Amino acid sequence: MTEARPSRISHLLRASRPALAGLAFLLLISIACIVTLPWTTGRAATASGEPGLPRYNQGRPDAGRLPPSWWPATDSQQARANSLVPTEALADIARASGRTRQQVLEAPTAAEQRQLRQHWPAYWLGSDNLGRSLFLRCLTGGGISLGVGFSAALLSVIIGTLYGAIAGYAGGRIDAILMRIVDVLYALPYVLLVVLIAVAADAVADRIVMARAARREAFVQQQVQSWPEPERADPARIEEARRAATERFGSGEIPQSTRTTINITALLIAIGGVSWLTLARVIRGQVLSLKNQPFIEAARAIGATRGRIFLRHLLPNLIGPIVVYTTLTVPQAILQESFLSFLGIGIKPPLPSWGNLAAEGLGELNPYQSNWWLLLFPCLLLGLTLLALNFVGEALREGLDPKRAQG
Length: 407
Hints:
Elements: H1 6-15, H2 17-35, H3 37-40, E1 43-45, E2 51-54, H4 75-82, H5 87-97, H6 101-106, H7 110-117, H8 134-170, H9 172-187, H10 190-225, H11 235-249, H12 256-272, H13 277-290, H14 294-301, H15 306-343, H16 354-362, H17 373-399, H18 402-406
Antiparallel strand pairs: 1-2
Helix pairs in contact: 1-17, 2-8, 2-17, 8-9, 8-12, 8-13, 8-15, 10-11, 10-12, 13-15, 14-15, 15-16, 15-17, 16-17
């Protein structure tokens, strides 16, 4: 079997300008979003020295819905931005012009307005309705969306490769049973399966909370029943028993960080656990065509185990389809995560993703005043990333196609 040469792949990437541009954009967006994720999700210290909110969630409500710093602001937006200028800077501007601070704020001259603009809060991509930086939220959301997309694609590739290889190599009744399972899963609506798994994770978390609350309440009732009859109606004693139950069993609430972890893990399993069906069929077909080749027969003749045959002989010849499928699955996984987050059953606020950022921005479009930046930038980043992944995937597909390599 003719194997695609890495030199041909690199040559196609260099020759294809869209693929080269897509690869450069993917590297840039990955570094910008994923590498900065520990910083954007970190907690900056407050004035008292205690850790505050994560950086992506920090904002000033009075600075809500301000346009990007480089975009012309309306009169009302200028007035709100001027009110955010630090007192010291405002006093210096008023002193230099010989007017009061109130006069500068109410009717600034052109020169004063230019000076005031230099002290506006710097929002490169504007701010949302809570005054949070859309730039930081897009960075964090990109890290979340790309992380879920790549991880779900990796999970899908592992499951699909193993499943298809086992079905194709075992053959016979095992192959028939495994492929009928794939056919049944194919018949089920893909989005419905993902939604059900994501909703089930929330139900499990809620069930845990209810179970802890029930255990705590049972402990209180047991304590109350052991008291003498006159004390059972004493509110102070009952409240004391509830505090004791809380100290013993905890409040019962799942921390927000744990809920977020459960939510992301469930979403990862939901997307990756149902998107491996196509790869399983492709790998099965490849294994069926390879397992009777002379080099496989020679490996069996010298006593090689099935595991060794798969790892040393079959898997290297499956790299091409696996790589192509991975590059085409990553954008699908990212799009699925964004779609579910857009519907409100994926990544949930305040943790951002490109999907829920687009959902929030959609509500800001109205005939009175459209805050367009809240919808444009998350959708633009998502669209460019998906386009870049498809360009790279197409180049890899051509480079790893044996028929094209022979030509």
